[in-house]
Amino acid sequence: MFFENINWSYVLILPLIGGALGGALVLVWWERRLLGFFQDRLGPNRVGWFGILQSLADAIKLITKDDWVPPFGDRALFILAPIIVAGAMLMAYAVLPLGPGLIIADSNIAILWILAMSSLAVYGVLLAGLASNNKYSLLGGLRSAAQMVTYEVFMGLSLLGVVMLTGSFSLKDVVHAQEDMWFCIPQCVGLVIFLIAGLAESHRLPFDLPEAEHELTAGFHTEYSGMKFALIMAAEYLSLILISALIVVLFFGGWLGPKFLPSAFLSGIVWYGLKVLIVINFFILLRAAIPRPRYDQLMSLGWKILLPLSLLNILITGAILLGTQ
Amino acid sequence: MLSQIKTLWTVFVHLFKRNETVQYPEEMPYQAPRYRGRIILTRDPDGEERCVACNLCAVACPVDCIALQKTEKDEDGRWYPEFFRINFSRCIMCGMCEEACPTYAIQLTPDFELCEFDRNNMVYEKEHLLIDGTGKYPDYSFWHVAGKTIDGKDKGEAQNENKPEDVRSLLP
Q1: Could you tell me which chain A residue has the CA closest to the CA of B15?
Q2: What is the ipTM for the molecules in this complex?
Q3: Per-residue pLDDT at A262
Q4: 3-state SS class at B18
Q5: How large a percentage of chain A has pLDDT more than 90?
């Protein structure tokens, strides 16, 4: 029988892509709304119920816009760049667990895969900056490359503590290893470092130096318009969801509820969604509150503070693991 | 580091504060009586035009959006503008004209909703600008306090004005 050979987890692919892209759309509206509330104003509330269709209106506007390719740039790379960015981000979702048993590919190198894909997305950003043939875009692309090289290093290192405690790179094993205690307690340093690195990785404010609109107009996507711009923006929100989901899976027990509540209190996927929402809202709060650092501050924070700290974290975790074994 | 966390907390608390903004087209924000919006021309308590076409507003205007031409009434000699034109697509609502006006004729109102589809409709002529009432300073009438002679009011007949000195009475 044909159906016996199907891996049923592949059925998840379409709902996941739809959910992630739809989530990114809703998130655009939700972020604007929440930023409005943080700044004592209302935010977009006209289109649909409480403005929830605002992103849809934006999408229609972006589709009908002139899809301009700069004649002075590199045409092929210019078109390729947003596809790389969005494609790499979506590929990273393949190994992301959504709930107990809800996982497309339970890979034993899931963490490495996600790190690799988020690094590939940098190529898209760099190529976008390069292909635009515009000094602001190039500056944005250069900044992005340097920022990624810096933050990628200890983004991986900060996760090593979790991997050491779990003994596996599989995200499913990571969640199952947190049944007694969430890793946010023994790995609190790793959590903070991963949070900062994740901010830089998804170039969210306050680490949005590649696109700092006050200095570089829009950085690497200055020349982009229409659906190409929408794709870059979608990739940015996809990476925000990805980083939030990763933080929940790696440090806050994924779909596991708190210990003191009975396990049937809420289903795993609801816990998971709730936690991801809280982390996303925290990211938006960070955007509303924290000013952007200067570029040299960003670099010195990365190399001089966070890198030694993450190495120290690995050392201490390893020492404790050795001592208790 | 501590200040960053304090900032986070302060911004978070603002989530529960009242909004400073209002739902504008449905809900009007409070307009102060002396808000500087659309410009009007007022009349004195007798119902005559206050404007004496002195051109001071046009001179004071930093964007040169006011144009007018002086003429005189045949019956009583009062000065008034033959035409008075304000180009609101240029006007920056600075209120310099109101400050310059010696007769309180030109005044700014709290109305700010100046929207037109055709740019030419932003040019207001005298009949659009002139209102029936006095606006601010309801009792002020320039011709009653000014020393200039018009029909029905000779030298020395204005308010707080002495009769002109008869210079011949000083002769030995």
Answers
A1: A38
A2: 0.73
A3: 65
A4: coil
A5: 1
CB-CB under 8 Å, A40 with B11: no
Report which secondary-structure segment, H or E, holds A131. Answer: helix A110-131
Nearest to A40 among B12, B19, B23 (CB): B19
Tell which wins on pLDDT, B1 or B5: B5
| Max CA distance (Å), chain A | 64
Q: Which residues of A fall within a CB distance of 8 Å from B8?
A: 285-286, 289-290
Residue carrying structure tokens 């977009």: A44
* Letter string b/e over residues B95-114, b meaning 16 or more CB atoms within 10 A of that residue's CB: bbbbebbebbbbbbbeeeee
Helix, strand, or coil (residue B25): coil
Q: Do A38 and B8 touch (CB under 8 A)?
A: no
Burial B118-152 (b: 16+ CB within 10 A, else e): eeeebbbebebbbeeebbeeeebbbbbebeeebee
Lookup: tokens for B99? 């400050």
Q: Flag whether residue B24 sits within 8 Å of chain A, measured between CB atoms.
A: no
B3 in contact with chain A, both atoms CB, cutoff 8 A: no
* Rg of chain B over all Cα atoms, to the nearest angstrom: 24
For chain A, the C-alpha Rg in angstroms (whole number) is: 20
Quote the pLDDT of residue A211.
73
Secondary structure of residue B100 in the 3-state scheme: helix
| Interchain proximity B11–A37, CB inside 8 Å | no
What is residue B43's DSSP assignment? B
Q: Please tell me the distance from the alpha carbon of residue A85 to that of residue A118, in angstroms, as a whole number.
A: 9
Nearest Cα to Cα of residue A33 among A292, A289, A281: A281
Query: Is the sign of the CA dihedral A203, A209, A214, A218 positive or negative?
Result: negative
Gap between the Cα atoms of A281 and A35, Å rounded: 10
DSSP B66: E
For residues B154 and A166, give the distance between their C-alpha atoms in angstroms, rounded to a whole number: 105
